[in-house]
Design goal:
heterotrimer, A alpha+beta (541), B mainly alpha (317), C mainly alpha (309), A: alpha+beta, 14 helices, MetI-like_sf (chain C), transmembrane helix (chain C), membrane (chain C)
Chain lengths: 541, 317, 309
Amino acid sequence: MKIKRIGVAAIALAAAGALTLTGCTSGSPSSSGAAGDSSAIITTNGSEPQNPLIPTNTNEVGGGKILDAIFAGLVYYDAKGAVHNDVAESIESDDAQNYTIKIKPDLKFTNGDPVNAESFVKAWNYGAALDNAQLSSYFFGDIEGFSLDENRPELSGLKVVDDLTFTVALVQPESDFPLSLGYSAFYPLPESAWEDLDAFGENPVGNGPYMLDGEGAWKHNEEISLVTNPDYDGPRKAQNGGLDIIFYASQDASYADLQGGNVDVVDQIPEAALASYADEFPDRSVNQAAAIFQSFTIPARLPHFSGEEGQLRRAAISMAINREEITDVIFEGTRTPAHDFTSPVIDGYSEDVPGSEVLEFNPEKAKELWAQADAIAPWSGTFQIAYNADGGHQGWVDAVSNQLKNNLGIDASGNPYPTFAEARTEITNRTIQTAFRSGWQADYPALFNFLGPLYGTGAGSNDGDYSNPEVDALLKEGRAETDIDAANEKFQQVQEILFKDLPAVPLWYSNVNGAWNDTVDNVEFGWNSVPLYYQITKAAE
Amino acid sequence: MSSNTRSTQQHYVAPVEETPLVAIDAVKAEGKPSNLWRDAWADVRRRPMFWISAAIILLVVVVALFPGLFTQVPPNNDCQLSNSNAGPAPGHPLGFTKQGCDIYSRIIHGTSTSLSVGLIVTVLVAVLGILFGAFAGFYGGWVDSVLSRLGDIFFSIPYILAAVVVMSVLSKYASIWTIALAIGIFAWPATARVLRAEILRVKNSDFVMAATALGVSRFRILLRHVLPNSIAPVIVITTISLASAIVAEATLSFLGVGLPSSIMSWGNDISQAQRDLRTAPQTLILPSIALSVTVLSFIMLGEVIRDALDPKARARR
Amino acid sequence: MAGYILRRLLQAIPVLLGTTFLIYFMVFAMPGDPVVALFGDKTPPPQVLEAVRERYNLDKPFIVQYLLFLGGIFRGDFGISFSGEPVSDILARTFPVTLQLAAIATVFLAVGGILIGLISGLRKGGIFDASALVVSLILISLPIFVVAFTAQYIFGVQLGWFRTTVGSGAPIQDLILPAMVLATGSFAQIVRLTRASVIETDGQDFVRTAASKGLSRRRIVPVHILRNSLIPVVTYIAVDFGVLMVGATVTEGIFNVPGVGRTLYQAIIRGEGPTVVSFVTVMVLIYLIVNLLVDLLYAVLDPRIRYVK
């Protein structure tokens, strides 16, 4: 068994609808396009949430999928990643720093509590306060009044204007702030939640397209049963009767159940089936690039990897890797070779950012650059890539190592850490003395989200301690631009610099791989790799 | 055992008047001084099974010690993805792994790892198991309580889980020694319990009472009379535990806490190949065959020795 | 006899303390900060890390954590998992499932393994003996994940005889396939052990005596040979039952059984000390009770063994 920890996927993933549900089904074909049974329950795969179901304390796929189904945020993302209002009537700002948010009237949580400005402000204040130790607290870090040094029960940047209006003041202009509001950390909470938040986390009450099927619907480690919320009348209105999310310990188990007809839709395919699933589920599978970027980071502090020598060696390593071959052979074409530091599903993506040639396989040039670096200071030792052994990374790490060995003539190997916790701890504490696997799944669909948190000086996830004042300045300028195209231009300039410095060596984008049985129709996957459950239809049994 | 030349009272030499089958047993008692181990050897060398299994084991040991005699292909270099899961090619009689490495070479070079892990675990389990089991079963009372409960502590922690923890703690030093320690340190109580049970049974036998009556010391009774007559199930379990240990190494690789891929081992290759079970079964089956043949030889050898050590089984032939 | 049982129960206390301490220490000594892992590939600010650690008592020294936990147990409070569920609920949910799984597997083992081992032993060197050796050998030299995936694919997906994974509520019929897979792991041991023991018993004086008294083989085999061969086998099965109770990590993962092995493995990987120790505590209790029963059973199987001096 493999604990499912697909790189980035262990992180936050959220946004996108949910639903589906149960039923042991075998057979019962539905003619394509037939109207679904509005009471049919759709079954899908999931994993046991690692934390109580509280939006600001959930940052992993298992819980995120459920929260996205039972909550509606200010905005939501469609299949393409475009942002539309859900609960919000309007989100406005003149300066990209001070926002006024108006909420649609007469919305209710499933327990009857109203959805109003207080529902958001209180939830956000709770999520941000240090003493509450919420896992997603840093999402509020750009709001005025946020502090990591003392507990502040209320953010000074949040003000309730009237029942349905509140304002947000940021510490600096950020034109992509409204884009981030579909992330689960920004969901509202009903008044009743504050009576007993622990109990709420076990039986959460939301305002989304689905709701829990009564008390105890969350059967730990087995499944959670959701039914359609009859009061939800927003853009994600469910076309089916409910959603049963079955918790699987491994991708292999969920795929076996798909084959056995015990589950309708799965959004992950185990390694053993990557080669065959498209044939086994003809016209009922997807394999498309997703908002997940995979790389390995070479920390700036490693000997031989700074200054001019470092640039040469980084470029040589990048060019010595045949990304096409690895994605084809090791991943059976279920990864897309990287052409930049972001993802093709993000608005503003380009394959042809100047400098991206460094990602193309060129063994001669690689050898030449490596030799030039050796002229500055001779290489010695083994080039190692650290990874967590519980995440299924050994295959590609070994393949990359073999290519480096073959094409650069150096010794190279993987450096496995038994657990994800150990690898992350060494990385966080900066005690790791090798290159290491890195990956990023976007929280919200924007170029900045792939760049700022990873390569800005001192940024939260800049684990290689990369620092370049030019990059910092461009990131700041880009964020302040109110015009999205002008902003993206700045961000592409950031990438041009990154291609020279290669703080991380881009490898590929993870694809979303999923398949479904002929019991269901209208299956489409969202930008964040999760099926848009609300629009799936299922014929009556 | 060479110092041991004195005649030994074997348990089938019971007081004549208590033994209705004296005629059968008497045959041996009149012979020259007998020695359990010398007799066993005399018995064992007459059996083809012994020579076959011994020959295979010898071959495996030679492969483990001198892999260079059997292949010139480096196992871990020159792996080309273009050869991924490809069939046999000139110079590569068994084809290639998913990573495009030579399967034959990897099997040859993985032998020493898998064999060492198996042997170290077996020795560890046998030594600890026999010590704890023998003393607990034979002396009983508080010795039994202390030793058995100590065994309980180790055994109630499931060994795969314990191995995960031990390998995590020692991950910086991952080697055949740490993995053998991780597997063995929590596996010996099974052997101890089985031996203890067997000794509980044997120590009430007539020949033990006879030896006691003759004034033989307690420790000597344990060593010369009780242990040899209780050891058979231990040998069976131990030879099988050699197999389990080699397989456990594969399971630990599967769980992500096995040996790093830079150390060649059958278990590592099996757990990697498991993902291609349906598309390229040969990558799984070939190292599995190597493992099975090795394991089979040890089990066979264990059976032969067990039979030889059982005086009654011998007397019957 | 009663005195013996009472003594054994009292001995359980140091065993419990020793085991919980050992496992708690091992989990504590595992490198890696479980709190860091909670944030996935994102690096949280150190202040947030500190705050989360404090919430789970992970900022305290090892011995304090252990004593806090131990104190809780004596009050019947096993603590709370990272997911906010009381650990006692998790125990109540997972142990019955795994108990069923282990029980079914043990039945397969006991019936199948002893029967085959008995026949092998009685017809030592015959065709049946040789085939049994080869089959059990193949099973033992295949890692359990290979057996499990193959069984799942053939019997679940292709033939459809069993549900591919265990469904909601873990009904018994869904547990049969995983239990069979689980049993293969120890099948060879039971067969070989029974065979060896039967061969040995078959050579004993009392068997020859019985035969010379004119008793039929049909009566000698079950009454004299089998009964006297069972001690090592029963011991091993009992020991193995303990292993099956908790060691089903891989099988439970592949068949998605919501049982002890899978839950415990996840807790270990996540570094959830209190959850791990609570599980081990219950396991140790089960293990000690099973062992006690086995020791008592010895006296039934072999009247020469006595516990009362």
